[in-house]
Design brief:
Number of strands: 0
Order of helices and strands: HHHHHHHHHHHH
Helix content: over 70%
Structural class: mainly alpha
Largest sheet: none
Strand content: under 5%
Number of helices: 12
Shape: elongated
Distance between the termini: 75 Å
């Protein structure tokens, strides 16, 4: 990608480009030719993936990913600083680079770095693609009488400003949406309980879900009269959390487990209730 980097960082700065407007069609053709060359490189990596090590493939593909993301971020900055006469050119170059990211995500998702923030233009693209499925899922869950606030908080991280979405966040939501769409109704679970079950399995470690769940548990506990009943309910929820299956996914990597956070809260809440009732009794 050396030639691409040279073009973007050296030739496409607004001050330099405005002096070479006649060269822009030539530059655009060169950018497209570089994309074709990179596409051929990616095809070779795909064909040789069985014989190459996973680490070697990951290093090569992540280099393409990170350099393409950096160039798109720079192009967005250039566009903000440039005269309007250059905006179309910057948009056309960005579209070519977006094609590279699309190819990487479609064919090599398991190799990509998940903690890299998506360029704003690419984040808009993937969210726009995902939005019809999200809206259909929201309607499906609400039609089944799912709690509206619970449904809202599931998709709140996806609808944050585009520049704050990582590749991992989008990969996570694609899997989560599919699982929520295909969930099978269970006789012993309400729709809200089934949603919670899936969110815990996917480690939906959102602060909003933590606050929502603890409010729900406090409300249930407050409806019981005796300390034994309150503690028994919390113990039951703790056991349920402990025994739930989990997969390797997480909404926020490195931010802990939502089940672990709730189990810790349950321990503290039991201690608080015990102390409170003991004080009242003395």
């Amino acid at each position: 990608m050396n030639r691409l980097n040279q073009l973007v960082y050296v030739r496409f700065a607004p001050g330099d480009l405005i002096c070479e407007e006649g060269q822009m069609p030539v530059y655009l053709d060169e950018i497209r030719n570089e994309k074709f060359r990179i596409t051929a490189d990616l095809r070779n990596i795909d064909q040789q993936s069985a014989s190459a090590s996973w680490d070697a493939n990951a290093r090569a593909l992540r280099q393409y990913q990170m350099q393409t993301v950096a160039m798109l971020d720079v192009l967005q900055l250039f566009r903000q600083q440039a005269a309007k006469s250059l905006h179309v050119f910057y948009g056309e170059v960005s579209c070519v680079l977006l094609d590279i990211l699309i190819a990487l995500e479609q064919h090599f998702p398991e190799y990509l770095a998940r903690d890299i923030y998506m360029p704003e233009a690419y984040a808009r693209h993937v969210v726009t693609q995902l939005e019809p499925r999200v809206r259909a899922l929201e309607k499906q869950l609400l039609d089944k009488k799912a709690d509206r606030e619970l449904v809202r908080l599931i998709f709140a991280p996806l609808r944050q400003p585009a520049g704050q979405l990582t590749f991992g966040t989008i990969m996570y939501y694609r899997r989560l949406v599919q699982d929520l769409q295909t969930q099978q109704p269970l006789r012993h679970m309400t729709v809200n309980e089934r949603i919670h079950h899936i969110l815990y399995a996917y480690n939906f470690n959102s602060p909003e879900l933590f606050r929502y769940t603890t409010r729900m548990l406090r409300r249930k506990v407050s409806q019981l009269r005796t300390l034994q009943e309150k503690k028994a309910l919390l113990i039951w929820y703790g056991k349920e959390l402990k025994n739930m299956p989990a997969n390797e996914y997480a909404l926020h990597h490195g931010k802990g487990s939502i089940r672990g956070q709730l189990q810790e809260w349950i321990k503290e809440e039991k201690l608080f209730l015990h102390t409170l009732f003991t004080t009242w009794s003395s």
